[in-house]
Amino acid sequence: MITIENVSKSYGNKKSLQDVSLTIETGEIYGLLGANGAGKSTLLSILATISRASSGTITMNGLELSKNMKHVREMIGYVPQDIALWEQETVKENLVLWSKFARDKVTEKQLYDLCGMVQLQEKWHEKVSSLSGGMKRKLNIAVALIHNPDILLMDEPTVGIDIQSKFEINQSIRDLASRGKTVVYTTHDMSEILFLCDKIGILQEGNLQFSGTLEDARNSAIAQGVSPQSDEELLYYLFGNQGDGSCGLLKK
Ligand SMILES: Nc1ncnc2c1ncn2[C@@H]1O[C@H](COP(=O)(O)OP(=O)(O)OP(=O)(O)O)[C@@H](O)[C@H]1O
After folding, report:
1. What is the DSSP letter of 118?
2. pLDDT tens digits for 68-89?
3. Which residues partner with 155 through β-bridges?
4. What is the value of pTM for the model shown?
5. In CATH, what number does 2-84+148-212 get?
6. Beta bridge mates, 220
7. What is the rounded CA–CA span in Å between residue 170 and residue 158?
């Protein structure tokens, strides 16, 4: 479970997050959504202990992040937007190198199986520099899973990945969540939102404008006199640009 309370982050005068509070339950896939620059990566990088909040409190599985960095790092797997791999090493060598950072020993068989989850077993002995952009992204995902983390923080992990593989990766993420992993996921892909996310949070200029299930969003829309005919229409409505940059649901 992740509890985020009144988290703000400023870069100089720029407020990238403003008083964000939300709770993500264990085993939930939480989609963090919003326009470019809304603050999604900023929040994920704070959760991943890469950067620090200017104010506010974050608790992960009962541990307050600022006081338990080491333990929190052991429980999270982070897929950054930027790919973090050794280009001149093979797929296998990359996984072995990353596995050295894991607290428990990870066998080569476990790494090979992990490679299967992201459809890369055929590339086991190939240099990363020879992989396509999408394949590198898949390997980036595998790296985050090496130490079997309880919490997965995924920042647009499937950008550039083909539809078939994306579907398989999404299935795997669903499977991980059903086994109790908590997932925070950012994406701009509507089909992923609908397939993956149990709840969504919409950030807008650093403010959390909405947090809840699609059902919650639909009920709010209906209460405001709008009846979206499909989930896609509901999302269009949620994100609808009302001319002043505000979210459709909240403008009404
Ligand atoms: N290191 C930094 N220094 C200064 N400003 C930053 C820094 N990192 C992010 N920002 C600013 O914070 C705001 C939020 O950026 P962030 O990367 O979190 O957005 P995002 O929602 O992840 O966008 P995208 O969908 O494009 O990935 C932006 O205005 C961005 O310019």
Report:
1. T
2. 999 999 999 999 988 889 999 9
3. 186
4. 0.91
5. 3.40.50.300
6. none
7. 9
CA 41 to centroid of ligand 1, rounded, Å = 7
Phi, psi of 13 (to 5 degrees): -85, -10
Pairwise CA distance, residues 226 & 167, whole Å:
31
DSSP 138-186: HHHHHHHHTT--SEEEEESTTTT--HHHHHHHHHHHHHHHHTT-EEEEE
Spell out the domain ranges in the chain.
Answer: 2-84+148-212
Q: In a mutational test of the pocket of ligand 1, which residue from 8, 15, 20, 41 has the highest number of ligand atoms less than 8 Å from its CB?
A: 41
Residue 249 has pLDDT above 80, yes or no: no
Atom of ligand 1 nearest to the CA of 35: 25
The complex scores an ipTM of 0.97
Identity of the amino acid at 228: P
Q: Report how far residue 86's alpha carbon sits from residue 186's, in angstroms, rounded to the nearest whole number.
A: 25
- Asked if residue 13 has its Cβ within 6 Å of ligand 1, the reply is no
Asked if residue 169 lies in contact with residue 185, where contact means CB atoms within 8 angstroms, the answer is no
